[in-house]
Each structure stands twice: as C-alpha cells, then as structure tokens.
Amino acid sequence: MKKYRESKNFSLDDVVTLTGVSKPSLSNIERAATSPSINILWKISKGLGLPIAYFFEEKEAVYELVDINDLNMIDTDNNLIKAFSAFTWNPSNNFEIFYVELIPGAERLSDAHIDGSVEIIIPLKGELLFQINDEEIKISPQKLFKFNSDIAHKYMNQGAETCELILVMMYPFKE
C-alpha cells in the first residue's frame, strides 16, 4: 500500500480521506505491524480504486493451477465465512477470483465496491440467499448470477449445509 500511495504522491491523510480507514490503522498496515481484515481491505481498495488482490500481488506466471485446499484464507472478521483469493492478481486483467464458503447461518453485508464494478457468483454447493436493494434472490448450483457490485449487497446462508461458491470480481478498465 505504501508503494502505491507514494507512487500517487498521496499522504496518509489523503488515504484516510479516500478510504475512511483511520491513520493509525493505515500506518500499521504499511509497516506490516498488523494484518487488515477483509472489511478494511475492501475500504482501502474501494477508496484507492484498486482490486483487493492488488495487496496480494506476486510475480506473474505463464499459468496457475490451484487446489482449493491449498489457498490462503483472507480474514473476514466472521468465523462463519471463509474467503480465499484464488489466483495471483495481474493489473492488466481487471478481474479477480475468490473461493468462498458460508457456514449455515452465515451473513455478510458487503459495502459497495469500486464504481462500475461487476460481480459474478458461481455456486458450487448449497443455496445462497442474496440481497441487493430490497430484493432477496436464491442462487443455487446450476445457476449463475451477475450484478453491479457498486452498491451494498448481502450474502446469507440460511440452509443446513455449507454454501460454496466462486466469486468473480470485475473492475472497470482504467488507463
């Protein structure tokens, strides 16, 4: 984050204004004194106009084959929800892919993402109850769901089994 902030000539105060994250928290993140939760990362990514995976960037490979069981979990601040970044993010792709598990009873309210962003949900197992605006939509395997994610939305698992899904985040093209 510090590398990006300095490349844009932003002060920490500028980033506080853009993201709504406190200056002490941002300073701790930059110094690697703390690991931010997924909620804080979403605020930072939205405020700076970056995909969340920007903060996990690694050297790009010709191809990647990942085993879901080997993915590193992202802290969601909710022990009923597990989220994993599936592939190394490349700035030229303008998308990122996550594997997500929602334990029965799990609920996650997601703030609006970057303006112009789109999300695709591909359910693998279980039934996801999804809320956008005041509408609730049931999404089950064999169904694909796409929506504009630049508004707040909510994921819920009201079923008896764990809901597993692939989540694709697509960001607007930026030059």
How is this structure best described in words?
With 175 residues, this protein is α+β, with helices and mostly antiparallel strands. The chain has 2 domains: 2-56, lambda repressor-like DNA-binding domains (434 Repressor (Amino-terminal Domain), Orthogonal Bundle), CATH 1.10.260; 68-170, Jelly Rolls (Sandwich), CATH 2.60.120.10. Helices cover 19% and strands 30% of the residues. It has helices at residues 2-7, 12-19, 23-30, 38-48, and strands spanning 73-74, 81-85, 95-102, 107-110, 118-125, 128-132, 135-139, 145-148, 153-156, 163-170. It is globular and about 45 Å long.
Topology:
Layout (H helix, E strand, L loop, with lengths): L1 H6 L4 H8 L3 H8 L7 H11 L24 E2 L6 E5 L9 E8 L4 E4 L7 E8 L2 E5 L2 E5 L5 E4 L4 E4 L6 E8 L5
Helix pairs in contact: 2-4
Protein name: XRE family transcriptional regulator
Organism: Lactococcus lactis
GO molecular function: DNA binding; DNA-binding transcription factor activity
Which key phrases capture this entry?
alpha+beta, 4 helices, 434 Repressor (Amino-terminal Domain), 175 residues, six-stranded antiparallel beta sheet
Average pLDDT across residues?
86
Extract low-pLDDT stretches.
none
- What name does the CATH topology of the largest domain carry? Jelly Rolls
Helix and strand composition category: alpha+beta
Q: What distance lies between the first and last C-alpha atoms, to the nearest angstrom?
A: 19 Å
Oligomer designation: single chain
Percent strand: 25-35%
Q: How do the strands line up in the largest sheet?
A: 1-2-3-10-5-8
What count of helical segments does DSSP give? Answer: 4
Write the element-wise H/E pattern from the N-terminal end onward. Answer: HHHHEEEEEEEEEE
CATH level 4 superfamily of the largest domain? Jelly Rolls
Biggest sheet, in brief? 6 strands, antiparallel
- Shape from CA axes? globular
Return Rg in Å. 16 Å
